[in-house]
Design a protein that fits this description.
Number of helices: 3
Radius of gyration: 16 Å
Shape: flat
Helix content: 25-40%
Distance between the termini: 58 Å
Strand content: 5-15%
Length: 67
Amino acid sequence: MMGIYPVSSEISQFSASLLSIGPITVPNRVILAPMSGITDAPFRRLAERLGAGLVVSEMTACAGLVR
């Protein structure tokens, strides 16, 4: 019976698989989602340096782009 936490073989199998998004392959499955108002550029750079496979920038308001 499988519990809440995966057994070690499931963890190694999960971490070994790469994530592909269209033609792009991300090196691992650690993704930092856009958290508007919570994260900033230095935090995203730190997450990338610490091994995040994909780091997403802040969301942009369309009105700001028009200006």
